[in-house]
Amino acid sequence: MRQLITSPGFAVAITVIIYFAAQKLYERWRFFLLNPVLISIAGLIALLKLLGLDYRTYNEGGRIISFFLGPAVVALGVLLHEHWQTVRAQWRTLGISILAASLVGIVSAAGAALALGATPEAAASIAPKSVTTPIAMGIAAKLGGVEPLTAALVVSAGVLGAALGPPFLRLIGVRDPLAFGLAMGASAHGIGTARALQEGTLQGAAGSLAICLNGLATAILAPPIMWLLRAVF
Fold first, then answer.
1. Domain co-membership, 146 together with 38
2. Are residues 90 and 196 in the same domain?
3. How many CA atoms lie within 13 A of 163 on its CB side?
4. 113 CB contacts (<8 Å, ≥6 apart)?
């Protein structure tokens, strides 16, 4: 029995089953805190604790699922191609929106951390929390942050953004599909884009574009902004 539950195939199976159950739960109740990613993470943690499995053992199978993340992100380019005319017509608005998203993402996170007395290393770790994990970890390393902490913060931002983003955007009156997708992708990267895709293909295309452009903007803007913030605080 122990050999079974420590096998990579078991890790893949329980991940798929828990996510499928979480998806059905969300479809049944449509409550934002029942976001499938959030429920899946909580469910997996609970199950691993119950079975006495450590993360290293689970990740032997988890890496198989992670492998498909790259192709899935690339596949979002298909949606962008389908809606390219719509996106291209709004290029000025897109550029300003991404610039604003990057600035707000960095300043609101790192600035608040420094103002509350966080160390420069902690502030540097949280600064790129709104971009996808590989880019965020690279930025954090250049800023003197702690890469594992950055990875955890990025995942947290994605999960919370996917859960709270849609109801918040509706609350403040955001109805345009392009604006919805940009906001989700720029604030909650891949997880937010996956949630945006549930609303429609244009939202998913905008989210995928936001992932790329926000990553680039944050990589360029984070160093000078962090220098200014450290000088102020």
1. no
2. yes
3. 19
4. 122, 123, 126
